[in-house]
Specification:
By secondary structure, this protein is mainly alpha-helical. The protein has a single domain, classed as Growth Hormone, Chain: A (Up-down Bundle). The chain has eight helices and two strands. The protein has a two-stranded antiparallel sheet with strand order 1-2. The longest helix is centred in the middle third of the chain and has 21 residues, at about 55-75. InterPro entries: IL-34, IL-34_sf.
Amino acid sequence: MQKECRIIEALQNKLTYQQRLQYMKHYFPINYTVNVQFEEVLKAANITRLRDQNVSELSLRYLWLSVNSQVLLKIWAVLLERHPSWEYTQDLCRLFEQLAEEYESYNQGNVDANVQDVVEQVLAADAGSSQRAVPPKALLDNCVKVMWLLYSESYSQVRPSSRRSARAINQAQQGRSKDLTKPFSR
């Protein structure tokens, strides 16, 4: 559990708004998108809906980990080794792999049926599944919002310190998509 906390803290440090903006937007062509399965667009509203269906927190974390691991691999696959975002994305993939190792001890038989079905669809990369073109930054923004929803109550270091970030969590819990963790513009 302590190693999981350190990994989540490292992810939080890597997934700051400034880094997501720089590596997933500014270093990509304007309007660049990555094709992902419909199930790989995991938003806060999806988590809220699953919580309403009494899906366990551990199953939700497993879903978040599985979906975002695949999303990162798809982003990383489109990058050349010399691309400025290549190393950043590789570091994120490595952190997700470490987190997956922590969850290996979690018995897959304990995963809720709804979650297991979605994870199987994502891991199978089913060609029959509908595809969506999504900007890389939007995918990581969703990753961060869901991470806050799933881990903020368990780990104090994931709790944002500013009022502005706390409002972003509240809005994410309500299923709103606006990212309020952006710095104030003057």
